[in-house]
Amino acid sequence: MNINNIEKLLKKSNNRLKIIYNNKIMDNLNEYQICELIVKYLNDDEKITILYDENFLKEYNMLYPVYIVKIILNLSDINKEKILTDNKLITQNLYLKIVHIINLVESLNSDESKIKIFRIYNFKDSWFYLFVKCLSDTSKIKLLLESSSFDKIQIINTLILFQNIEFLIDFFNNNKDFLQKNNIYPCEVISNLTDTHQQQIVSLLDTIELTEIEKKEIFATLNNKVKKSIDTTNLSIEYKKALSLKNIDYVSKYSDKAEMYANQIIIDFNRNLEDYRGLDHILILEPEIYTEEERKKSLQLCRICPNLKIVNPSIHDISSCTTQEYIEAEDWISNVLNFLKQDFSDAQKLALIDYVIGKRISYSPDFNTEISNIRNYRSVWKIICSGYGICNGITAIEKYLLDRIGIESEFICSQKHGFLKLINIELPFLNGEIKKGNTIMDPTWNLASHRFGGKPECFCIDYETARFVDINSDGTDSLCHKNDEELNDATLSLDDASLRNLFRSIGLTDEKGIFPIYYLESLSTEIHNKFSNNLLKDICHQFTLLSKYYPYFATCPNSSMRVIKDILFDSDTLEFNKCVINRVYNKKDKTKKPILYVYIDSDEFGKLFFYATSNSEQSIFMLLDQNDFTSTFECYEEDLKKNNGIRPWETSEPDKTIKNLSTPSDNIVAMGGECR
Q1: For residue 670, is pLDDT > 50?
Q2: How many CB atoms are located within 10 Å of the residue 629 CB?
């Protein structure tokens, strides 16, 4: 039967659904033709029956959005809403995606119905933007004010869709608390409006209840085309100054970081810095790219605009810091750079910079825990102030300092780690020869050695050596430095004797090239020999030794873990059933600050628990019995997950060492086997 005859049947029939379900009639038609018949001849109840009949839809190959959407679009608003509110039907049975759902929502006449559907599917990101476009200005406001789940970007994207500028102005005037609560500035909304709407806003600016600073921010962040069109005859000097500021073209320059750079203005250090007073919110500093003179002026600007942002864009997620952190960190950096003698070679400067970073910075002790905030450990200046970072941030600090003194380097990333390749650097060798080339520097893996006066094992090494240190003690490859494409030309490596001679030349070893940690190792060995028959006294004296020579060891848990494991406890006189050196937090501490602890299970004393504590003068280890320790401290959730929820003292199984990128694969002693 051809389609014309079928249409005649449908027109005459009182049971059209029966005809549609008749295989003999439908088998000669394709899915497009069947869809057209359903849309044209079936009533809403019959269409809904079809939509719920998955077998029919599959049989006639109609489970495609193009057919499903067309059928739903031809329902009444009441029935459209009924179908759309059935989330399971829409998403699981009819396989519609958000883009199709929004298309259907747009066809509804009632904003109330649209918002009802929105609450079911909770559109986010660009889908939210498409959804809001189909609402009236009144409904946009209703949706915003009734919900607390919107983020700043969603709110701004909603407000820029207002079609009536007077309506937007009323919103600004009547919802100041809402805007303040969500940290939204009027200029952030207005700068995203069309040129025409921006011009309207400027003409009506006196009707908006804004402060003078807020108006200056608006003038400063208008589109450049709009700025040129404004008649400045009757504008105040302050507004004219704001108009003369240039916007950052973040779309072309920072397309991957639009949120950070949107609504920001370019800082011109050649103009009077007082012109920027009060505009903190729309100012952003990038000290990494500044000249020394610009950097000095940026510090002045921080005092004029104490709430501006400082970022280091070399880090992919653009970590930021406060002006106070920036000023404090730059003061430390200046002291470091001023300490470099004019007659120092680049290699000597490099050695001293790597050393002072290791003495100042520790690997973040809460990395890979439920409280860690990676952005806090990637900003150059925040890390310097806090003393804690992770590989990307620590490497960025070293690169920043090297850039300042003209030593060229590249930021290199493997799959899991960040470090430096030094470009065409001259290295001195013990035989008097100077070699020039590319070499690898890993400031993060040098931290513990520098902190405790050991020989840095990732200082000016070639790619082959870097890959060698990636091999863990169990033979597995950590791949931390694997990057064949960018590192094959890193062939320059400083041998042990030459490295010692380099560090001796700047006073970081004795005249024989022995690093200070040798003396800690020697004293530790003496304690082991003296108390070889008394395990507890041996351990306690080892901890006293650590406290005496490194009074602040509790503030650098990761490095201290290595020293305890690889120096203090590296003796045949210490026999443990189990020894765990790790981190916990005090249960009463809401911030869950990491605390270094040592748990020992021995035949002689059973279970021993030590935890590190400190004051302004000294760090010490305290001994607690098991009940006191377990009632006071707890393991981090992430650490427990790695051990199937079992705390180290709850099992006799060997402890799984926490893997992190703050330490080399082996131990604190150098590759030659001697840390001195």
Answers
A1: no
A2: 20
pTM: 0.80
Domains and CATH numbers, the chain: 340-505 (3.10.620), 527-650 (no CATH)
Contact present, 226 and 195 (Cβ < 8 Å): yes
Helix/strand/coil (H/E/C) assignment for every residue in 24-86: HHHCCCCHHHHHHHHHHHCCHHHHHHHHCCHHHHHHCCCCCHHHHHHHHHCCCHHHHHHHHCC
Determine the Cα–Cα distance for residues 131 and 128; give it in Å rounded to an integer. 5
What does the DSSP 8-state code read for residue 659? P
d(CA 548, CA 560): 13
Q: Quick: pLDDT tens for 495-515.
A: 999 999 999 999 999 999 999
Taking CA atoms, 640 is separated from 178, 581, 650, in Å, by 41, 15, 11
Going by pLDDT thresholds of 50, 70 and 90, the confidence category of residue 550 is: very high
What crossing angle do the helices spanning 65-73 and 77-84 adopt, rounded to 10°? 140
Q: In Å, what is the CA distance from 506 to each residue of 291, 341, 359, 475, 500?
A: 28, 10, 15, 36, 10
244-299 residue pLDDT tens: 998 876 444 444 444 555 668 889 999 999 999 999 989 989 898 899 999 999 99
Q: Which residues pair with 600 in a beta bridge?
A: 579, 608
Of the candidates 457, 459, 456, 427, which has an alpha carbon nearest to the alpha carbon of residue 441?
Answer: 459
